[in-house]
Design a protein that fits this description.
Blueprint: H1 8-21, E1 25-26, H2 32-63, H3 71-82, H4 89-104, E2 110-111, H5 115-128, H6 133-143, H7 152-168
Antiparallel strand pairs: 1-2
Helix pairs in contact: 1-2, 1-5, 2-3, 2-4, 4-5, 6-7
Length: 178
């Protein structure tokens, strides 16, 4: 799973609405925006750490002259060193952070549901906002069929096409795609 910044407020709102509506938590209407901001902050912090992880991967690969095809291994190794979740661990990590926040937040008046029940609901909501990266990549590849695969031009064209596809689906802003 990949968490997109544009999905963060949507996920925060969906989690609060779902758990408030089913009686799992009580958040007074006047505290709803602040409670939502707390959830946004949790996800933003995850994204900041994820960005830092990406920078550390680039740095290690450059410093040790590691070929690009080893990027996934390097990312996995550093993520393990940092205890940073990746892939399918992300929804579970975010769910644990969100539930922990409910227990200490001054904007959540009461928690009525069992942690396990809330955990399952939050994971389901986060996963519902996952994006099929493979489908995006296939669409981008369709756009650059005329470029020879394996070349530097292909990688540049694919990166541009991916930005265009993600922009079209509203996953990144036009400002971020430049």
């Amino acid at each position: 799973m990949k968490l997109y910044r544009v999905k963060v407020p949507v996920i925060a709102r969906a989690v609060l609405e779902s758990l408030c509506n089913d009686g799992s938590i009580l958040v007074e209407p006047e505290n709803r925006a602040e409670a939502e901001n707390d959830l946004i902050a949790i996800m933003e912090e995850f994204l900041r750490r994820d960005h830092d992880l990406g920078e550390a991967v680039k740095s290690r690969m450059a410093n040790q002259a590691i070929p690009y095809d080893q990027r996934g291994k390097v990312r996995g190794a550093i993520a393990t060193e940092w205890n940073h979740p990746t892939g399918k661990e992300i929804p579970r990590y975010l769910a644990r952070q969100i539930i922990e926040n409910f227990m200490i937040s001054r904007f959540v008046e009461d928690v009525f549901a069992d942690d396990r029940d809330m955990y399952t609901k939050v994971v389901r909501i986060v996963e519902a906002h996952d994006v099929n990266e493979d489908a995006l990549r296939l669409e981008a590849m369709e756009r650059i069929k005329n470029v020879a695969e394996g070349s530097v031009e292909y990688e540049d064209a694919l990166a541009r096409a991916m930005r265009e596809v993600k922009t079209r689906y509203g996953l990144i802003s036009t400002r971020a795609s430049r």
